[in-house]
Amino acid sequence: MTNKLFKIIAAVGFYGAVCLMASESATAQNLSEKLTTDPKTTTGVLKNGMKYYIRPNSKPENKVELRLVINTGSLMEDDDQQGLAHFTEHMLFNGTKNFPKNKLVDNLQSMGVQFGADLNAQTGFDETVYMLPIPTDNPKNLETGFQILQDWAQGALMTDKDINEERNVVLEEARADLGASDRLQKKFLPRLLNSRYSERLPIGKDDLLRSFKPDVLRRFYKDWYRPDLMAVVVVGDITAEKGEALVKKYFSTLVNPTQSRARIAYGANPYTKQEVMFLTDPEQPSTRLSINFSPRKTEADKTVGDYRNTLVEQLAFSAINRRYRDLASAAVPPFTAAQTSNSSYIRNYQALSVTVLPVSDLTTALNAAVGELVSIQEYGFGKEELELVKKNVLSYIEKQYNERTTTNSAAYLEEYEQNFLVGEAFPGIEKEVELYRTLLPGITAEEVTAAFNKLFSKEDKEKFFAFVLSPETKDAAIHNEATLLAAIQKSFAQKVEKKAEVVVSTTLLDKMPAKGTIAKVEKNAKLQTTTYTLGNGIKVTVKPTTFKSDEILFKGVKKGGTNSYGVADKITASMLGSLIETMGYGKFTPTDLSKALAGKNIALQHAMDETTNEVEGRSDIKNIESLLQLNYLELTAPRLDQNLFNGFVSKMQMQLKFIKSNPQAAFVDSLVTVMYNNSPLRPVVIPSEAEMKSLNAQRAIDIYKKEFASADGYHFFLVGNVDEATLKPLLEQYLASLPATGTAPKFVDNGLRLKSGNNKFVFKKGTEPQSLVVAQYFGEVPYSEDMALKANMIGDILTIRVIEKLREEMGSIYSGGFSGSLEKEPYSHYSIETQLPTGPENVDPILKQTEAEIAKLKKDGPEQKDLDKVRIAIIEKRKEEIKTNQYWLSKLQQLEFSGYSTDRFLAFENEINKISVQDIKKAANTFFDGKNSFIGVLNPEK
């Protein structure tokens, strides 16, 4: 369950938009035309007022996504109910008419539905949403799912005993949010929200959560959980007829109260003056400035004209934020990041806001961020920059349209929720194609400029609320409310020069590489793959799929990794991908490359882990050649740019300057140091100032060329809607042409090990009553895929026990669990670990209970029902994942590069079904042999 404070609609996001490329022959749209409802969706309203949405969708197969959406949240709470909208959400997982106490979670786990990962809910100011994915292999599951939704709607038991037992869990959830962010929010939110919203934060008040009478909670449920405030959403592998029949069967009998309370729509108030706050906290890890202008009343789009107006505004925000990204990538960046958005944290209102994180000083960052807004007022958006934004919009939308028959069910859920809650339209893909074809080409830079200037007017600049969140900064030019206000006023009045639009080359390669050859072709009937061995030794394994209509995933891997480098190069190797990316490739700076790739749905990134070097990217069908061109460019032509390198380092230094003021960050950094016995080769958690100063641009280029530029040892994988006849000449042109040196890369074991023995480390930092328990049990055993699976299952089994014991029985945690792994490289080693956020008073009982659960697992093995739950969850997850390109990309790497067993993979369900209680017990005694463990505890200073 998540406690949703408020939702920000990203300025670059586009509601449900899908489109084909614009056509010159497109006919003009009638702007007064009403937006219709997607014909693929069945909607209706029951006699009791409950609304429903049903959409058949077979991706993924044998799964239905259910949602119960309730048009009520924390705003509806009475004064004696603050926090009880969220508490109600908790109670619906803790006892209903047909599923008393923990039977609901237990029943769903037996289907393979995992608590937290799948089964979840969220409470906001205005709404509460319950999420329930149901596997439908067994027809009874769907009936059970609808029965659960019905129980949530009006079947909660809410016994005094259950309510009182849940208090500690809710308080633990509230405890997790404590810290600098919470302390500062309590100061600025009342002025930012300037309405009832600031008085009804969903998490509520601790004192009330501890002391409220159970009848007060039941009153909230009775008043607000009623069918005329509810909607049921059903999307998935189900017919519309069956979905509608189940909705009517389970929800037609629900009744509204005889006298229903009015659901008041609380609005927002405009700011009446220029007001600022300068807030500091010693645990705040960075400085942030936010300028917020008065919220404006909005309405959901109802006509084509409304839709067009929204699109015009969104283009403006996308263009502004592109300017900010360019500035943040400059040689002397004024800020690490900045964003202007149309925030909608109050329902049916939007407010222009500017947020900026400085690199060195606030004055420079403020003037740069506001300067772009002043520039737009003065000179407007350029035609070329708007065309770049349009290209990206069209490219994104075209991809969504192309994948309309392979869209995942979960992608449809939010648009139905938003239609119910605020009336947002969902006309469907075909209609939106038509809209984008006709609307987008006619939108001019002048029109986008005018739309933005309505949001950033003279009147807006006269009334706003701004705040700074910062560590203690007493010597900065902006250091209190007076200097902050003066600086903002001055930034509004600054004079800016018009920027010349720069046209960037869109040709990635000025000269085509010399074409190579395909030396050998091998078919694998079991995996339905083809492996090409190229003339330079590169292997390329291709698996054509139709899981997504317009997706191709790409990955290259070779032996190597950070273990190949010593202490002097450790920080450079660990940050290599970012260091190279910040300088660009060939003739392109990062900003130029972004412009050159506008309108192309491709992406590529590089990384080194301990033992491998990896290149990973994606493309749509039409841009696969561009992706392979980009790969050739990036592998062979890293660009040395000392100024851009220095700019990146300066941003990183600012981000790291105060990071250890955060208690958890400081704890993890110190814990890793101690766990690895202060080895200079230990993993980098927070780079030190000395490490950042040691970074060298030329050395980064040298390492990159050695590790990535040569063909030696590469195995590439392409998975997706690939046409192999089209692909083969591209492989010859862009992969077979990579230079080879004849040097075979290898895995390197640098000898780094965790500190042996049973150790405990207690770290004290922070002022809030928060603790964190980290436990790791580790050692070396011979690698086998069977033992690796058992390690994973043991982690899942212990997670079930943790939820039952530490959360439900003891009330000592809100979230937490175990994970287990057995790794093959650089040496065969295992780790079973857990992280448990809690309070200092719970640390010892938690450690004691955790050890008791481990001891029980070693003595008796798991309960059969827990083993069955874990097994079915893994199988259900695999059934869904095996129909995705990402799963096959990683699986082929394991099978073809790392040497995992294909026969075992194909017989996976048989293998996992063989594992018995005694097998897990035996494995637990191997993993928990008592020889090596590390317990880390973060406690507050007092």
Automatic annotation (TrEMBL):
Name recorded for this polypeptide: Zinc protease
Name the enzyme group at the top EC level.
hydrolase
GO molecular function ontology, one term from the record: peptidase activity
Concerning SUPFAM superfamilies, the annotation shows: LuxS/MPP-like metallohydrolase
Which is a Pfam family this sequence falls into? Peptidase_M16
The record's listing under PANTHER family reads: NARDILYSIN, ZINC PROTEASE PQQL-LIKE
UniProt lists the family membership as follows: Belongs to the peptidase M16 family.
Q: Where is the signal peptide?
A: 1-28
GO BP = proteolysis
Question: Start and end of every Peptidase M16 N-terminal domain?
Answer: 57-175
Domain (Peptidase M16 C-terminal) ranges? 212-392, 704-871
Keywords per UniProt? Hydrolase, Metalloprotease, Protease, Signal, Zinc
